[in-house]
Amino acid sequence: LTNIIISNNSAGVGNGGGMFCWKVNSNVVLNNVDIIDNDAHYGGGIQFTNNASANFTNVSITGNIATNENWGTGGGINCQHGTTLNFENVTIQNNSAPYSGGGICAVGSETSLFIFDNVTISGNSAVFGGGVYTGNFNSSTMTNVTISSNTASDDGGGIWCYGNSSTSLVNCILWNNSPEEIYTDNSYPTLTYSNIQGGWEGTGNIDADPLFFDAGNSDYHLSN
User: Fold this and answer.
1) Which residues lie closer than 8 Å to 193 by C-beta, 6 or more apart?
2) 89-119 as b/e, with b when 16 or more CB fall inside 10 Å?
3) What CA–CA distance (Å, rounded) separates 86 from 182?
4) Are residues 80 and 107 in contact, defined by beta-carbon separation less than 8 angstroms?
5) What is the pLDDT of residues 136-191, one digit of tens each?
6) Maximum distance among all alpha carbons in the chain?
């Protein structure tokens, strides 16, 4: 899919308001795609499950809503059970879920792999994991990722990590997420050379105002 807008769709009580991929053997490619203002029970914007895979490049996932109040919803993206997703130059913004993973919810009983490079996750909200909710057998690698201004009404404003998940962040910024940047539950993410509000143990990590150019208008470029 290239140069398209997917918007104002509703899956009702179903899955993947903007897009639903299940048991897709060939890789789905999205380039210059906007997924906006969709809703579904699980994966307001997108759901990938059961060994589906995709590459996202120059994609915006914005204003989508998950409606199911149970575990594992995902306002922007819901992914589970053996999925492999690559995100490059992607914005995940202003999505919401009534339970877990306002921006992204990654759960399931099979190993899933998620790679993020130059991604902004901002303004998303949920009860658990306002920006990102990840657990069980998921492996996530984040490089040059900004996670800011996300909100959880319970825990994990920026990221909620639990169970057997493996999460690695390099050269990332986690700032102004509420109530905290990272919440862990029997999971131990690795952060290096990153800027974490309140600090975080790890090689090269700092705690310093990143001086976003205009965070109030969702511009998270650095001003210096």
Assistant:
1) 170, 171, 203, 204, 205
2) bbbbbbbbbbbbbbbbbbbbeeebbbbbeeb
3) 22
4) yes
5) 778 889 999 999 999 999 999 999 998 877 899 999 999 999 999 999 988 889 99
6) 46
pTM of the model: 0.95
Q: Which tokens hold the place of 21?
A: 């991929």
Q: What's the Cα-to-Cα distance from 106 to each of 13, 85, 93, 144, 204, rounded to whole Å?
A: 19, 11, 17, 20, 27
Nearest to 88 by CA among 62, 111, 130, 120: 120
3-state class (DSSP) for residue 217: helix
pLDDT digits (tens, 9 = 90+) for 190-200: 999 999 999 99
Burial 26-37 (b: 16+ CB within 10 A, else e): eebebeebbbbb
- Measured CA to CA, the distance from residue 88 to residue 143 in angstroms comes to 10
> In the numeric block, which tokens belong to residue 151?
């909100």
